[in-house]
Amino acid sequence: MSHQTVIVLDFGGQYNQLIARRVRECGVYCEMLPWTTPLDTLRAKQPIGFIFTGGPASVYEKNAPNIDPALLDWGVPILGICYGCQLLSQLLGGRVVPAAEDTAREYGKTETDFDPSCKLFSGLPDRGIVWMSHGDYMEQIPEGFTVAARSAACPTAAICHEARGFYGVQFHPEVAHTQGGTDMIRNFLYQVCGAAGDWTMGDYKTTAIQSLREKVGTGRVLLALSGGVDSAVAAALLSEAVGKQLVCVFVDHGLLRLHEAEEVEAAFAGRELQFVRVNAQRRFLMWLDGVKDPEEKRKIIGKEFIRVFEAEAKRIGAVEYLAQGTIYPDVIESGTGQAAAIKSHHNVGGLPDHVEFQEILEPLRMLFKDEVRALGRELGLPEELVSRQPFPGPGLAIRILGPVTKNKLDILRLADFIFREEIARAGLERSMDQYFAVLTNLRSVGVMGDGRTYDYAIALRSVTTSDFMTAAWTRIPYEVLDRISVRIVNEVPHVNRVLYDITSKPPATIEYE
Predict the structure, then answer these.
(1) Residue 140 in contact with residue 94, Cβ under 8 Å?
(2) What is Dmax (Cα atoms) for the chain?
(3) Is 452 exposed, middle or buried (0-12, 13-18, 19+ CB in 10 A)?
(4) Which of 123, 190, 316, 438 has the highest Cβ tally under 10 A?
(5) 193 pLDDT tier (thresholds 50, 70, 90)
(6) Residue 259 catalytic?
(7) pTM score > 0.70 for this model?
(8) Residue 136, Cβ density class (10 Å: 0-12 exposed, 13-18 middle, ≥19 buried)
């Protein structure tokens, strides 16, 4: 089944994949391709529009990311965002320069005036808040363009050439901080590109199942099943695609939450798939002994996961494919294309160089978390499984700052259980998207039972988010936080202090390591 396609041309910005997510939210299929993609490849996609993304470079620098100017003569609409806007301007005769410290340089939420007669801002208020992040600006716009938005510091916050279908914005409409940002993208897709809105998660399911059947053929697939949302949806998708050729292996690495291994086994016990539970606690703790660096932890865990799966594949016999529930944020944060690596994910950047499988299958690799949940519903998974909060593959190892020990794991497991139990009792589970406890490497003086203590501090983390690329800290009621704190210091050995993290993403990540 073919769909109208929009090409998101990636110039290396850290959150460029959010643009692709917004496009798909609007019911339009898109592909993200690097700026180095040959023109012939781009033309073969028959795009109805291009979106040029942001990026860390300056367009006037030597060897800055660029495109063949011939692309601009195709008659296909283009929306440039931040770096993409500046590149479009420069290629068409505008001038981009570094902004002075006191003018045109902008970071963060910025009040901006819009021209509602411009199709990009049609139906939107003539003033709103946008998210700016740029150190350069368009001192001169190209001939034939008009200014469509301006802020107090930047007189060229948006430009347009409506006859050619070319638009550029200095701000980031893809992030949640920009008011009406998705509406701007929707206007570009429907009013400028003429999109029909023919992309749905039902279509993705059909296409993915067919693709997996063609790829696997008569081969066998071993799925790395963690019990979380991503691997559960991957299991359901692969089960529909290849049926009994699928074996789901759940590795109990000793880094799980309290009672989690038993809960995962119970959740999948009644399903029509082969479920294998492997107890590998001793080997994981052995390899993690004394390791402090979070990247090293992730790489050790990623390597050991693969080695366990390889051993199980040999025991089962004739397994050609390893499948994982990798999703887009995993790939982004591990570093992809021109984007910087934030942290390695055990199933992406943490993989060893050599694996004893014919191929690794990642059927969810291009989906964001909310899309994975939507696909799960399409596949008929129960809501309690689809709505389950995420849990990282490396487990509690990356929620313990510093070396991992069995004693620290026991401390964190109980503190985390109390946190989650009190959130459930308060009926707040649906008001937050991820919440957990962290065992910090901080020890401090306390007083318990009229005596001096010198014990650990537990940090609590809770965020609300729609895409896990940006997130806001959750405003948990004080009385709930009080109950959680009292219970943890009274019930968890070696803890005398409880902290609550009120940092959003960015600048923080959701997990600590």
Answers:
(1) yes
(2) 79
(3) exposed
(4) 438
(5) very high
(6) no
(7) no
(8) buried
Pick the catalytic residue from 3, 26, 30, 82. Answer: 82
Q: Which long-range contacts (CB under 8 A, 24 or more apart) does 387-391 make?
A: 387/229, 387/430, 388/228, 388/229, 388/232, 389/429, 389/432, 389/433, 389/434, 389/435, 390/228, 390/229, 390/230, 390/434, 390/468, 391/226, 391/227, 391/228, 391/257, 391/260
82 is catalytic: yes
Say what percent of the chain tops pLDDT 90: 63
Active-site residue, selected from the candidate residues 106, 174, 312, 422:
174
Judge whether 265 counts as a catalytic residue: no
User: What's the rounded Cα separation, in Å, for the pair 398 and 145?
Assistant: 50
pLDDT tens sequence across 273-321: 788 999 999 999 999 999 999 999 999 998 998 899 888 888 888 889 9
pLDDT band at 344 (very low <50, low <70, confident <90, very high): very low
Angle in degrees, 0-180, between the axes of helices 294-316 and 281-288, rounded to the nearest 10: 150
